[in-house]
Design a protein that fits this description.
This protein is mainly α. The protein has 11 helices and no strands. Helix 8 packs antiparallel against helix 9 and helix 8 crosses helix 10.
Amino acid sequence: MTLISILVGTLVAGMGSVWLAALLAYALLSRFTQHLLSLAAGALLATAFTRLLPEAFELSGSAGVSPQTMFAALLVGLVFFFLLDKAELWHHGHEHGHSHGDASHSHNPHDSHAHAHPHNHSTHAHSHDHANNDHPSHNHGHNHHSGGWAVLLGDSVHAFGDGILIAAAFVADPRLGVAAALAVMAHEVPHHVGDLVVLRQTLSNPRAALFKLTLAGGVTAIGGVVGYVLVGALQAYLPYFLVAAASSFIYVALADLIPQLQKRLSPRETAAQVAWLFAGIALVAALGEWVHH
């Protein structure tokens, strides 16, 4: 039963996020990804601090593991995901941002609307876009040909890791697994919107772009199965798996999402941003109350 729940949760988080992103991107509703970024940041932080970490510390306490050891594991996890990000294997933010920015300026003008969303350090990408206007020959051809495979590789690696983390949450508590799967889905949707924009520039067929990105999202389920086997064989280390999941969520929220929300906005836009952030927190809290009944 746990394995079935893991498969459903990982498929919803992986493939479901791709199709929801396609709905936003192809229906020219990508302006809503700004709100999704705020919602996802709140959901990730709430899931990490109010669900995953309390469960990890509770399990570690009964196993005789000290809080200092668990906090050290959290620190190691944050540094580990930082190093993966630097290697562009976790969120492929800088390369993706450049490809995305270049594509939106040098191709179909209708894509400029889709490009309006911030995706993976988009403020960083925008600042480079303006600089690139002074250098029109800034390697556009290379990005056009190589960006698609880089996106798919990065998404596949990231999806596999997400699957393992979701599986660990389901093994600890099915309710925790549901929260983790929904949090992963929330933060993957705005990322996949940008992925689709890049892939539409590198692939001639939009359906092929959606199909390949869906396959990459499906790798989440493979990670879920591997995680189920791995966590089952290493049950004593379950608290550390949960801390790893929490460190992933915290890193994504603080390093990827929050920086994109820190640009100067009007008071009305700032209020909306904060409201969506708290909506993400409230969503996790409400989900926790609902699953307990």
